Amino acid sequence: MKKRFGIDIDGTITRPDTMVPYLNKAFNMALTYEEINTYDLNPFVDVSPSEFAAWFHDSEPMIYSESLLVDGARECLEKFEQYADLYFISARRKDLIDVTETWFSTNELRYHQIDLIGSHDKIAMAKKLKIDLFFEDKHDNAVTISEECQIPVILFNTPYNLGPVPEQVIRVNHWFEARRWVENWLKDTKMPE
């Protein structure tokens, strides 16, 4: 029986530095990816939270359509597909499904299902889909998913997620490291060649 992998989209299969050029252009800044030490981007711009939210809402379709696939993601996901159904669970708004599906098609990524839940609270969806393993870039999501769902979570290291993690959250630096961990995790399961 196939496993069920839950996979975040932004910052996990898209490059985690995607937002930097858009922020710099829109807000006339010279921010670097390494300077972003918190997931919330509002503190880095000199506008009110409501102004930033409005800009982000209006900019999301363009940003998501132009996001670059992170190195190694396609190759690893193709390998995972041999022994797992791939469920992409994202905080993106539901009305961005067409942009999202087009991006997946353009990047030649297959999936079992895409769920845009409009919230960072992915626990209910992970439980509903009976996810066995999750891939994430947001620190608090990784921690709560691992604790509430009692599953391992692969957390991709970024400057904005460096807090401590429980044992079931596995930090990795790139997709090939994640793939090695997954293959070891599945060592009791016959892996396809």
Descriptive account of the structure:
The protein is α/β, with parallel strands linked by helices and 193 residues long. Helices cover 38% and strands 15% of the residues. Strands 3-2-1-4-5-6 form a 6-stranded parallel beta sheet. Strand 2 (84-90), helix 4 (97-106) and strand 3 form a beta-alpha-beta unit. Helix 2 (49-66) runs parallel beside helix 4 (97-106). The longest helix has 18 residues, at 49-66. The protein is globular and about 55 Å long. It starts with a strand and ends in an 8-residue tail after the last helix. The model has no long low-confidence stretch (mean pLDDT 95).
Q: In terms of per-residue confidence, which ranges show pLDDT below 50 for 5 or more consecutive residues?
A: none
The strand count comes to 6
Distance between the termini: 16 Å
Q: How much beta, percentage-wise?
A: 5-15%
**What general form does the structure show?**
globular
| Order of strands in the sheet with most strands | 3-2-1-4-5-6
Task: State the helical fraction.
Answer: 25-40%
What count of helical segments does DSSP give?
A: 7
Given helix and strand content, the structural type is alpha/beta
Would you list the SSEs in sequence order as H and E? EHHHEHEHEHEEH
Query: Which value, in Å, is the CA radius of gyration?
Result: 17 Å
> In this structure, how is the largest beta sheet organized?
6 strands, parallel
Nearest-integer average pLDDT: 95
